Amino acid sequence: MGAGVSLSRTEKREYLAGIAAAMVLAAILVFTALANRGAQPAADSALVLTAAFQRADGVHIGTPVRVAGINIGTVSAAALDDQRNAVLTFSFTQAAALPTDTAAVIETDGMFGSKYVELRPGGEEEMLKSGDRISYTQDAVIIEDLVALIVQRAKDARAAVPSAPSSERMP
After folding, report:
1. What is the mean pLDDT of residues 136-142?
2. What is the pTM of this model?
């Protein structure tokens, strides 16, 4: 066989289409990486708060923090304290005046969506300052735990209902 392998016109088009697809994929990956880098909160954000939860399932660094459904920051750190509670640090990308009785609740987007932290401002006059801890928290709801509870209650209810005597049963 000779060194000069000749490609048909169709093979050349397929080869060029493959190269173009690979270049588009590479461009998308680079764009996504740059966009994610830009989405991280600045280290010198105006407000940094912490909150402790007994369970923070599904929450990770980068999880959105919202007020009234609007993203105002992200979870910037997660650690365990001495009582084995999950301590989350929130860094805000937007200015937010939050009263000292604000509650932090771990919510789920839809039934099986991703987690986010919803901040529910209270009615106090005094506002949280950077470095403060949110005292009122509500842990993540675990769907599997809810299903197990429903099944157990159904079993308990079924066991509590007396069964009909055999003479009353239909064949």
Report:
1. 80
2. 0.59
